[in-house]
Specification:
- It is a single chain.
- This protein is 61% helix and 12% strand.
- The strands form 4 sheets. The protein has a 4-stranded antiparallel β-sheet with strand order 5-12-7-10.
- It has helices spanning 7-33, 39-60, 74-83, 86-93, 96-99, 101-107, 124-132, 152-178, 188-203, 216-247, 249-267, 272-289, 294-300, 303-313, 315-320, 322-326, 329-338, 391-395, 416-425, 427-448, 450-453, and strands at residues 64-66, 69-71, 133-138, 144-148, 340-344, 349-351, 359-365, 367-371, 378-383, 387-388, 402-405, 409-415.
- It contains 21 helices and 12 strands.
- Bound molecules: adenosine-3',5'-cyclic-monophosphate (CMP).
- Adenosine-3',5'-cyclic-monophosphate (CMP) binds at residues 357, 370, 379-380, 382, 388-392, 399-401, 403, 440, 443-444.
- InterPro entries: cNMP-bd_CS, cNMP-bd_dom, cNMP-bd_dom_sf, Ion_trans_dom, K_chnl_volt-dep_EAG/ELK/ERG, KCNH_animal-type, RmlC-like_jellyroll.
Length: 454
């Protein structure tokens, strides 16, 4: 049994999709213009029918994915296929012209049965869906992982364009079929282009009226197309408008957020400098993180995925913080899961000397300055990969210095309780941090009492 998500099946589906599209375009044109195919094209079309035939056989041998369960049972697979797509697939694949000579002559339908090949177009919906998702390898429990290769909104847009173009083409062919004397002295291309023009102007409800129905059947057809046109036009335009506005939904949400912030600033009568800082914080949020609130997404994820995602997301942090690089895997996982992201702009005070400590910080991007509040002395500049805020947590005291962002900074915070717990369970981590804290303390006291250390 073939796995329905196997990469080979996907490539095959893509191939079948291209073949269906070819027939969906070519068959109606041939039916209305009645031209003869060259030998080469004839072979090509036979080949496509063989592809369709092979597809029927493959479908009998492809397992079914139902409610995330893979059904291999041949009986069920056969029954399901027979009840669903088999008839359509069979009719479009069966070479009636080879086997049904008698049938054709008897009923006098010859060529018209080729229209059965169009039946397959209804399967395009399903195939289209599968094209959006690309299968990548098999995972441990024999399921193929599906990866979205096209954004769903863009995909829907492509789908609309595909279907409306195909539909306009069919309507144009129908028009030619009903009026064989439509521009009889012109060549096929001109007649087709004019008919397509009629189809598009009627479907889009523009209807210039330069091409008008003459016979009764044309008039009835035109009315039908007009009514369909209004429906399709409304549906398509409505959907496209929603799609386009949704394409950049994060920007729209962000803009709405800025408006709310502006109203808040006005309502609370905040001074201009504070208002500007709030605004620039949000503009930075947009520029650096595309307005995505990581914490919100975070809270919704189940813990199993959370660990893997956080390991992936904090890859950079783990690679820049020297301590993490050599830390055991369990510690990394434990710490990484508890980290909360935030960022600061140049000049922002992250905390002040004398504050009550709540967190320890890991600096993933940018640099911060460690400043003594009363003297204004710069004790140190910490670069990406450093951590700070550990001293007061270890000593259970107040912050020993002020930390100010020297540039834009991405930081991750670890809450006090989790910090203490992790220190308890990982003595190596505790020793490492305590060692650095001791060193910093010595450095602080040597700077505040320079003579004593001499
Ligand atoms: P904490 O006392 O919680 O708050 C201020 C932080 O600045 C402190 O923890 C250390 O992480 C950091 N710090 C203090 N002194 C120094 C120093 N001399 N060099 C580097 N970092 C320091």
């Amino acid at each position: 049994m073939i796995h329905p998500n196997s990469p080979y099946k996907r490539i095959w589906d893509l191939f079948v999709f291209v073949c269906i599209t070819y027939f969906a375009i070519e068959v109606p044109v041939r039916l209305v213009f009645h031209y003869k195919l060259s030998a080469g094209v004839n072979y090509f079309e036979r080949a496509i029918q063989i592809v369709f035939g092979i597809d029927v056989i493959l479908n009998f041998n492809t397992a079914i994915l139902k409610d995330r369960l893979l059904i291999h049972n041949r009986k069920i697979v056969t029954k399901t296929y027979l009840r669903s797509w088999f008839l359509i697939d069979f009719l479009s694949a069966f070479p009636f012209d080879l086997f049904g000579g008698f049938f054709f002559q008897y009923f006098g339908v010859t060529d018209s049965l080729k229209i059965l090949r169009l039946l397959r177009s209804v399967r395009v919906f399903e195939l289209f869906k599968s094209l959006r998702l690309l299968a990548l390898g098999a995972d441990s429990d024999d399921r193929f992982k599906l990866v979205e290769v096209i954004n769903p909104m863009t995909f829907r847009l492509i789908f609309f364009v595909y279907w409306t173009s195909l539909f306009a083409h069919w309507v144009a062919c129908g028009w030619i079929h009903l009026g064989p004397d439509f521009l009889p002295d012109k060549d096929i291309t001109t007649r087709y282009i004019r008919a397509l023009y009629w189809s598009v102007t009627t479907l889009t409800t523009i209807g210039y009226g330069d091409i008008t129905p003459v016979t009764n059947s044309q008039t009835i057809y035109t009315m039908g197309v007009m009514i369909l046109g209004v429906g399709i036009y409304g549906y398509v335009i409505g959907n496209i408008a929603t799609l386009l506005s949704n394409l950049d939904i994060s920007r729209v949400t962000f803009q709405e957020k800025l408006n709310t912030i502006d109203s808040f600033i006005k309502y609370k009568k905040l001074p201009p400098n504070l208002a500007n800082r709030i605004r620039s914080y949000y503009v930075n949020l947009w520029e650096n993180k595309h307005g995505i609130d990581e914490t919100e997404i975070w809270n919704q994820l189940p813990s199993g995925i959370k660990i893997d995602v956080s390991m992936f997301l904090h890859n950079h942090l783990i690679s820049v913080v020297p301590f993490f690089k050599n830390a055991p895997e369990e510690l990394k996982r434990e710490v990484v899961l508890e980290l909360k992201p935030s960022f600061y702009m140049k000049g922002d005070v992250i905390f002040r000397e004398g504050d009550v400590p709540h967190n320890m910080y890991f600096l993933s991007k940018g640099h911060v300055e460690v400043i003594k509040e009363n003297s204004g002395e710069l004790l140190a500049t910490l670069n990406s990969g450093s951590f700070f805020g550990e001293m007061s947590l270890i000593d259970d005291s107040l912050r020993t210095a002020t930390i100010r962002a020297g540039s834009y900074c991405d930081v991750y915070t670890l809450g006090k309780d989790r910090f203490n717990e992790i220190l308890k369970h990982h003595p190596d981590f505790a020793k490492h941090i305590q060692g650095i804290a001791e060193e910093r303390k010595r450095n602080q006291s040597s700077k505040s009492h320079p003579k004593e250390t001499k």
